[in-house]
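User: What would this chain look like folded?
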Amino acid sequence: MIRLTRPEDAGLPATQHAIQYLAVDALAHNPAKPVDPVGPTQLLLEVEACGICFSDTKLLHAFENHPRKLPVVAGLTAEELAGIPSYHPGAEPTVPGHEPVARVVAAGERVAHYAVGDRVLVQADWRHLPTAASSGAFGYNFEGALQEYVVVDERMVVTADDEFMLRVSEVPSAAAVALVEPWATVEAAYSRHERNGLKPGGSLLVVAEAGVATSGLEALRAASAPSRVTAVGAEVPGARAASWDELEPGFDDIVYYGADADAIERLAALLGNESLLCVVLGGRRLARPVKLDVGRVHYDFVRFIGTTGDDPAEAYASIPATGEIRPGDRVAMIGAAGPMGLMHTMRAAVLGLDGLSIVASDLNDDRLRHLAEVVGPAAARHGVRLDVVNSATTPLQPGFTYLTCLVPVAPVLAQAVDLAGPGAIVNAFAGFPAGTLAELDLQRIIENHVFLIGTSGSQMADMRGVLAKLESGVLDTSISLDAVCGMAGFAEAIQAVIERTSGGKIMVYPRLHDLGLVRLVDLPRVLPEVAALMDGGRWTAAAEKALLASA
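Assistant: Here's the prediction, encoded as structure tokens.
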């Protein structure tokens, strides 16, 4: 018999306040959600604080159709999953919140890696527990931290290779620690390594229009040796000949010889995860923009490359090693004055790269002023030119060599491509939902070797790096905090995120049941005793302690 520890046995309440997503665009503040019992391999976390992410709005809008709300298909058995009380896939109500800091307050008898009293930062993206379309995740198909207590199974957060809960010191504020996760996603947006050849041992599809030779293919294959090759419309040595109707999605590389936009759109749907579509124009031109799924660029790491010549190796060779900003780059941050935009702009400003300049654009003058006040001094110290502009009145001009798009609107990303100069990187950081089609000037992308990248989530190395900077005093993640609230303020807070009216991140303190949404600039009027303990308008551990004491 499996023995469960009831919360009351550990001196904890039987019920709690929680935010629950119930269906598409339906949420509730539940003041009496049961605190789950703890099984032998499980931990009960008491949540100190949890940030709100724009991804929380995407889960609200998609609910059971979100790729991370789908059932887990590997990593744990159905029986093991059924024994985890916080596992709620599909249409089951769930608790959002994937940017938390928490403390272990109860542990099952078979827990080996964590102990009661540990203060932990949760890495929410559990890629070892895949769904049919993405990965299992804390705050999605597993309940998250927008509640006072949450159960985590140790098998969810410990693998043979890594641990997905980092122990943190008592020094930083809960808000500063919780903000490590979004800062880590910013770091991951630039650190991901890109491959510049066919996937070794992967699957390759070669498609050629009538009368078009597959030039350069043999050398490309020799360099990387894919294990399976399929060919349509071409005679390729060692390849399986197929028709269009026989093709199934999942190819690692697709090399297309031709210039038919319809064919490219059809081929894009056949890409697998972390895959490349290479268009070999051979002197031909595309007659129109191409509709491409930019959600897959973000979530599935698909990439689109090409060459105006005959050799696909030229396209592969143009791929940068990583998505990192480079010395001398002329950078555009599009949508820079939002919570994540501020982080991206600050990160670029303090990289210490020679010859760097940044244009930070947005449509909200108040948020742009706030951005200039926060990032401007840091940019000046590092010798980086920072121009903060309202793009409605001062349109951006083409020629940027690095563009980060922080607005999940397909025409805005298409505009970023139009603003890109030769050799530019366009970073589609904004969380475009899968299935979002953008009409992109693929001809321009190919001619200028513009590389479109996107990332989702972060790796443990990114989180460890940001946490180390926080605990050593190199980085104050709290510079991105704009407002705080308790459970009563969540509805207003998530609406502010949806409408993009927040000038920074919003932090929820689940133990504060009745606190509404309060911007830090309003704290002197609303909670003067808390505001008095801030540092130049920035959040501090002392201010947080006073806020929690006010409950």
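The chain has a mean pLDDT of 94. If you want, I can go into more detail on any region.
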